[in-house]
């Protein structure tokens, strides 16, 4: 009887040890999976080009599937993403549509979080877009006259307080001395971000919209549907990124954004290269 009891105890101990070892292995696998997930917070205007850059990054580096488990991207206005990061959202890279928010993060002393030096990865271009009213005018003067004479037309811009493209659009309209008039006439429709501004115009819910040139490149918009504004006519949309924490993959991906291959993706997508 004692022998049977001893054998049973031994079997139970071995089973318990195996279960503990399995639990450790599963936890280790989960940790590895978490470590292999690159979490990117990206400005809404990057939703068309960033998937292509990620695909190019994997292909150009000839990375096996097990090297990168996943690259998880969250798109929103730069201001909204900045607020999330300040609140503790666990991103590894923040790709903003301006320089202000990454610069603020670099000056932030958050306990247990490392913010690296910001880097400029692209320069955005602003365009006026319409699918309901062909834009035959090509000169700035004729463009402004069109917007002012079409008194029933609605115009959308992204929220200037949150979206850098919206801030540049507002500055452009102010420089043309028509922003206040459009507001008083209640003809300005404010979108949450540049993605929403584009959708308002694309669906015909508004007549005109100040959008990112990259969005128009992505859909192969017809020449008569848009005018690319001269970069000197509005504040430069220099887009900065910043690495958060100590992820080697985040640093490597950031380097790829600045490489010749990465910059070529931006050029093809309607951006100007980083200066």
TrEMBL record:
Belongs to the bacterial solute-binding protein ModA family. This is Molybdate ABC transporter substrate-binding protein. Residues 1-19 form the signal peptide. Keywords: Metal-binding, Signal. The keyword Signal applies. The keyword Signal applies. SUPFAM superfamilies: Periplasmic binding protein-like II. It comes from the Bacteria. The gene is modA.
